[in-house]
Amino acid sequence: MMTKQNNVVTPNLIATVVLPSATTMPESMAMLGGLEGSKVNAWIDSMRASSPTRTILYSAKGKQIVVFLDYDGTLSPIVADPDKAYMTRKMRGTLKDIARHFPTAIVTGRCRDKVINFVKLAELYYAASHGMDIMGPTKNQTAAEKTNKAVLFQPASQFLPMIDEVYKILLEKTKSVSGAKVENNKFCLSVHFRCVDEKSWAPLAEKVRLVLNEYPKLKLTQGRKVLEIRPTIKWDKGKALEFLMESLGYENSNDVFPIYIGDDRTDEDAFKVLRRREQGVGIL
């Protein structure tokens, strides 16, 4: 069971989360920049006067912020090789500082082991495989506790053999497409075509569709130059957000302000949840 953090929002803490930094960061994550130096302080003052920031400051004042972050394109830059989507040391420091004040979760399509290896912070919540592999913080736990208690929820476990089978088939079917990369994210698959010649995009997608025709329990969606293959269960990043909010004890609370930052189509499911709850803010 996850526990609440008692830090209630003050203007300075809100600024840490929602105001831009003077340094260059990935597009969406610029909202989470460090606040250092007179130039940055001056920028913060000017941003506090802006209408969107004033609205967030007013709406979140006195409430518990919970932070949800996509990984690729938010905490790290989009890169040609998905295995090299490293976050900077500065970004890791910023993220660590945010997690000291607020419950913070990484919600990503990546497999859990890979994103944890990228982020290297045990005090975070991780909702990997588009929220189908959820784990709470493991900081200060023994090795046995990490193994036995860390995994909170895996709603698609029964699909693992099918996912592995399709992964092997797609490796074979796509190996003739130069630049294509199939990534096994445990409970889902990604077929990256960022490095594929544009003329080959449609033929590659057709190869993937033909494979999935034999697997009606899997569905195909598209992200930023990536084809996503997921089980057809009713679970997505929005459901993961709801699960984490409930686990933290904020299911029916009016004293919480969720902030979700993401840059892909799959993050829209989380934005829809926030709109339905009429709480918090989604930042694209």
TrEMBL record:
Keywords tagged on the record: Hydrolase, Stress response
Source species, domain of life: Eukaryota
Pathway: Glycan biosynthesis; trehalose biosynthesis
Cofactor requirements of the protein: a divalent metal cation
Hydrolase is among the record's keywords: yes
Gene3D superfamilies the record matches: HAD superfamily/HAD-like, Trehalose-6-phosphate phosphatase related protein, domain 2
InterPro entries the record matches: HAD-like_sf, HAD-SF_hydro_IIB, HAD_sf, OTSB-like, Trehalose_PPase
Catalytic activity: alpha,alpha-trehalose 6-phosphate + H2O = alpha,alpha-trehalose + phosphate
Record-listed E.C. numbers: 3.1.3.12
BP term (GO), one: trehalose biosynthetic process
EC class name: hydrolase
GO-annotated molecular function: trehalose-phosphatase activity
Function, as annotated: Removes the phosphate from trehalose 6-phosphate to produce free trehalose. Trehalose accumulation in plant may improve abiotic stress tolerance.
Entry's family note: Belongs to the trehalose phosphatase family.
Name under which the protein is recorded: Trehalose 6-phosphate phosphatase
Organism per entry: Trifolium subterraneum
Lineage: Eukaryota, Viridiplantae, Streptophyta, Embryophyta, Tracheophyta
